[in-house]
Amino acid sequence: MIYPIVKFGNPVLEKPSETVTVFDEELKKLTEDMFESMYAAHGVGLAAPQIGIGRRIAVIDVTFKEDPDGKLILINPEIIHTEGRHTQSEGCLSIPDFRENVTRPNKVTIRAQDVHGKVYDKTAEELLARAFLHETDHLNGKLYISHISALKRDLMKRKIRKMMKAGEW
Ligand code: NI
Q1: Distance between CA atoms of 124 and 45, rounded to whole angstroms?
Q2: From CA 28, how far away is CA 164, in angstroms rounded?
Q3: Choosing from 66, 90, 135, 168, which is the catalytic residue?
Q4: 135 an active-site residue?
Q5: Which domains does the chain have, with CATH numbers?
Q6: Rounded to whole angstroms, how far apart are CA atoms 61 and 72?
Q7: Whole-prediction pTM
Q8: Rounded Cα–Cα distance for residues 169 and 158 (Å)
Q9: Rounded to the nearest whole angstrom, what is the distance from the C-alpha of residue 146 to the centroid of ligand 1?
Q10: pLDDT, tens digit, for every residue of 9-28?
């Protein structure tokens, strides 16, 4: 099932998500639907609040179907280590048609659970590290625009409000 993507302005995107405690078939199906929804939207990462579900679940595939091992499921993820700094243009499926440079750590280790509840650690650099940070932020009710200057953020919000009024958002 392909879920519609929730856009900026919906409060679900700015609320911390709830910890997942039940690892059952329903959860597995939800992660499959999340991959399907992410690919349909041409994204490389998707967090559950982006489909209106406030649970600590995210899916990532920075290879966009190139590598089956690239499909990652992050349940209850936590950033446990960061190193360095890296600036790159970043976007979000929930804020379509906008991109901004965001400086984040370059090397990141997450601790998360898989779909069976098994805890794993994974270290990544560059784009995958950025995806770990971006998606974990989502689960904490935080959007990438919180990492840009207030000036740029206000400008973006003004443009979005205009689009909302015009029925284009
Ligand atoms: Ni996003």
Answers
A1: 15
A2: 35
A3: 135
A4: yes
A5: 11-165 (3.90.45.10)
A6: 6
A7: 0.97
A8: 12
A9: 12
A10: 999 999 999 999 999 999 99
